[in-house]
Amino acid sequence: MTTLELKLNLPDQLARDAKAAGLLTEQELERMVREALRARSLERLDAAKAKLAADPLPAMSESEIQAEIEAYRAEKRAAAGS
Q1: What is the mean pLDDT of residues 2-6?
Q2: Do the Cβ atoms of 68 and 60 come closer than 8 Å?
Q3: How far is CA 33 from the centre of its chain?
């Protein structure tokens, strides 16, 4: 586990309100950071989905898909053997 010591400057009223609401505890700060990370991940996923929708990949035939699978498996086998 990593310990961080932060100096956080907040407006007085905001600091009082956050403390009164229990938002400045280790557990609550950890929860907020985890929630922010999840939200950013979802934003990146949404951006990737929008980009793909705007410029979709061409459809692959069954034989092209099978060739990709076989190439991936061969790559994994080669990596495991080395």
Answers
A1: 91
A2: yes
A3: 12
Q: Give every CB contact of residue 29 below 8 A, 6+ residues apart in sequence.
A: 23
Model pLDDT for residues 32-56, shown as the tens digit of each residue: 999 999 999 999 999 999 999 999 8
CA 11 to chain centre: 30
Q: Given pLDDT bands bounded at 50, 70 and 90, which one contains residue 57?
A: confident
List C-alpha distances in Å: 31 to 1, 28, 68, 73, 79.
15, 5, 40, 39, 39
Single-letter amino acid code for the residue at 43: E
Classified as helix, coil or strand, 23 is coil
Instruction: Tokens for 73, please give them.
Output: 């498996």
Q: What type of residue sits at position 30?
A: E
Angle at 9 between CA 3 and CA 12, to 5 degrees: 130
